[in-house]
């Protein structure tokens, strides 16, 4: 039987303060009074009944009962002493205890199964969340391509041009490397060029060589893309004659007048 | 149960809820919108024939998870030599690595003037995308931004699986 923060063990005749751990072995009068109050909890127990003994013929005086009520209230403490209510002219009443209504409850009684269920639900939600995060991360894990090589090409004027190669494979790149060397040879014929960075990539089926030139002209970025298809064998995407047509040594926008005119018309 | 224990449970539940909200947001977040415009000069070296030249304009638009790619081909005189318009969706976005995975589900092709030579790139793209669409129902490609400068409105991107580097204008 729970009375505030105390537990009443009728069989042992003890009242145990669960916060402090103090065990009070109840004297006869207190045990008799509290047993009757518990037995008739919520109802008024008349004084004559409280004063009557149990099985034996013992009898408690009115003062003994009043003292027992006083000591019981004292043990329950100021927080719960009102559980035992005096009904004037009639007797005493043990009120039903409701922990929620306690004005300053130091601890709330929640059943262990409820706590366990709460923790299980929280754990499952955590696992679900982690699974979703992992799935989301793994499904979005697009592996970025890394350049095959990065080379700096010095020109006669001291200008340096960066050459970046991209390949889908780390091996079998002879054709791409060979064509990049052809391009470097052509580039080194220039004393100066407007292009500062060159990207070369060979399509996965080795049919198309892509060259992207990037430079700056009066603070404006310049870009030129060249896509060369060659179905011949052996392939010669980059040749000195073709490079000469490209005008890569230009210090303006790099395009031939005809090419620039055609592009502007289209755009 | 003590008040301290209840606070621990409350905090665990609160953190779980916040985590779920963050997860829902990340899963439902719409991919970034962007538009790239790339112009290229096409060269075709052939046996015993003079090199042919064309121009190619590629517009790649990603908006609200949908993708549109238009390939427009022109000859040296500025006449249209064919167009391929592809539409699909942006499947995955890795904003940290600047990568976009696009699945093209439909395409429309228009050849140039009658009797006009089709660019080799047009033939190649039409053939490859046709095979993928007929076989898998989609033509997949990814775009990786290698270099980008928003102040100068350009980006160097790498298209996969074709392994094509291309310099493009960022259109705002």
Detail the poorly predicted runs of chain A.
Answer: 100-105, 256-267
Helicity range of chain B: 25-40%
- Radius of gyration of chain A, in Å, reads 48 Å
Give the helix/strand class of chain A. Answer: alpha+beta
Number of strands of chain B: 8
| Structural class assignment of chain B | alpha+beta
Major sheet of chain B: 8 strands, antiparallel, barrel
* Widest sheet, order of strands of chain A: 8-9-10-11-12
Largest sheet of chain A: 5 strands, mixed
By DSSP (H or I, 4+ residues per run), the number of helices of chain B equals: 2
Average pLDDT rating of chain B: 86
Beta strands of chain A, count: 12
Strand order of the largest sheet of chain B: 1-2-3-4-5-6-7-8
User: Largest inter-chain interface?
Assistant: A-B, 61 and 61 residues
Overall 3D form of chain B:
elongated
How would you characterize the overall build of this protein?
The complex is a heterodimer of chains A (267) and B (172). A five-stranded mixed β-sheet of chain A has the order 8-9-10-11-12, covered by helices on one side. In chain A, strands 1-2-3-4 form a four-stranded antiparallel β-sheet, with no helix packed on it. Chain A has a three-stranded antiparallel β-sheet with strand order 5-7-6. Chain A folds into two domains: 97 residues, Orthogonal Bundle (Arc Repressor Mutant, subunit A), CATH 1.10.10.10; 108 residues, no CATH class. Helix content of chain A is 34%, strand content 25%. Chain A is of the alpha+beta class. In chain A, helix 1 packs across helix 3. Chain A is rod-shaped, with a radius of gyration of 48 Å. Chain A contains seven helices and twelve strands. Chain B is α+β, with helices and mostly antiparallel strands and 172 residues long. Chain B has two domains: 29 residues; 137 residues. Chain B is built from two helices and eight strands. An eight-stranded antiparallel barrel of chain B has the order 1-2-3-4-5-6-7-8. In chain B, strand 6 and strand 7 form a beta hairpin. The longest helix of chain B is centred in the N-terminal third of the chain and has 26 residues. The radius of gyration of chain B is 23 Å and the shape is elongated. The interface between A and B is large, with 61 and 61 residues. Strand 12 of chain A pairs parallel with strand 1 of chain B.
């Amino acid at each position: 039987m729970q009375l505030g923060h105390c537990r009443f063990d009728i069989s042992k005749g003890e009242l145990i303060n669960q916060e402090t751990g103090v065990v009070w072995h109840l004297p006869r009068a207190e045990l008799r009074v509290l047993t009757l109050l518990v037995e008739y909890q919520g109802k008024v127990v008349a004084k004559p009944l409280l004063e009557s003994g149990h099985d034996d013929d013992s009898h408690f005086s009115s003062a003994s009962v009043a003292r027992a009520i006083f000591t019981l209230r004292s043990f329950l403490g100021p927080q719960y002493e009102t559980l035992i209510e005096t009904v004037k002219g009639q007797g005493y009443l043990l009120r039903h205890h409701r922990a929620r209504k306690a004005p300053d409850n130091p601890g709330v009684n929640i059943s262990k199964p409820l706590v366990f269920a709460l923790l299980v639900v929280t754990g499952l939600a955590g696992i679900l969340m982690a699974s979703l995060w992992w799935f989301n991360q793994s499904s979005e894990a697009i592996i970025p391509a890394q350049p095959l090589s990065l080379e700096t090409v010095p020109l006669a004027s001291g200008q340096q041009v960066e050459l970046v190669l991209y390949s889908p494979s780390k091996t079998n790149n002879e054709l791409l490397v060979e064509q990049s060397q052809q391009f470097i040879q052509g580039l080194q014929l220039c004393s100066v060029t407007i292009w500062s960075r060159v990207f070369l990539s060979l399509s996965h089926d080795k049919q198309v060589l892509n060259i992207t030139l990037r430079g700056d002209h009066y603070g404006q970025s310049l870009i030129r893309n060249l896509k060369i298809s060659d179905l011949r064998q052996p392939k010669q995407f980059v040749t000195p004659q073709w490079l000469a047509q490209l005008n890569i040594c230009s210090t303006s926008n790099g395009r031939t007048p005809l090419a620039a005119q055609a592009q502007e018309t289209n755009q | 149960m003590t008040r301290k224990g209840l606070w621990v449970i409350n905090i665990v539940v609160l953190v779980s809820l916040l985590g779920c909200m963050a997860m829902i947001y990340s899963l439902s977040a719409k991919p970034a919108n962007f538009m790239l415009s790339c112009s290229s000069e096409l060269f075709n070296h052939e046996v015993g024939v003079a090199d042919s030249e064309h121009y190619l304009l590629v517009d790649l638009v990603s908006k609200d998870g949908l993708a549109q790619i238009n390939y427009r081909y022109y000859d040296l005189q500025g006449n249209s030599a064919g167009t391929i318009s592809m539409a699909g969706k942006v499947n995955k976005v890795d904003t940290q690595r600047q990568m976009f995975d696009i699945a093209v589900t439909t395409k429309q092709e228009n050849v140039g003037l009658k009797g006009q030579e089709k660019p080799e790139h047009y033939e190649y793209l039409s053939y490859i995308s046709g095979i993928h669409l007929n076989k898998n129902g989609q033509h997949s490609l990814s775009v990786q931004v290698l270099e980008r400068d928003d102040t100068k409105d350009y980006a160097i991107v790498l298209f996969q699986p074709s392994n094509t580097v291309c310099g493009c204008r960022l259109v705002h």
